[in-house]
Amino acid sequence: MVVDNPRNPNNKGDETALELLAELRREAKAVERQTQNAYYYAEPIRAKTWCLRCHGGSKGEPDPMFPKYTKDGWREGEVIGAAVARVSPKK
């Protein structure tokens, strides 16, 4: 899972994954890219109702479940991330 501003640093995508996320936000159903080092395939992750408890509402509001974080201002159905598969060639 790749998002722009991850709470979990493991969800920070590389440059190509973030570019794919930007393409998905422009209403692509899926995107793929071949780079010199890897093949990428990505599909959108959309905000569901249950996501909004912690991430919806006004951006910057305290998260009720995890007070050290703030809400993101997401709306239901919005593309909030991408499921990205990255395959590197065998060495």
What does this structure look like?
The structure is a single chain. This protein is an alpha+beta fold and 91 residues long. It has one domain (9-87). It has two helices and three strands; from the N terminus they run H-E-E-H-E. Strands 1-2-3 form a three-stranded antiparallel β-sheet, covered by helices on one side. The mean pLDDT is 92.
Give the structural class.
alpha+beta
- Gyration radius, rounded: 15 Å
End-to-end distance: 25 Å
Unreliably modeled segments: none
Largest sheet, strands/sense/barrel: 3 strands, antiparallel
Individual helix count: 2
Secondary-structure element series: HEEHE
Number of domains: 1
* Oligomer kind: single chain
Helix residue percentage: 10-25%
Mean pLDDT over all positions: 92
Q: Strand order within the widest sheet? A: 1-2-3
Name a few traits of the molecule.
alpha+beta; three-stranded antiparallel beta sheet; 2 helices; 23% strand
In short:
With 91 residues, this protein is of the alpha+beta class.
Which helices and strands, and how do they pair?
Elements: H1 15-25, E1 31-34, E2 39-46, H2 52-55, E3 79-87
Antiparallel strand pairs: 1-2, 2-3
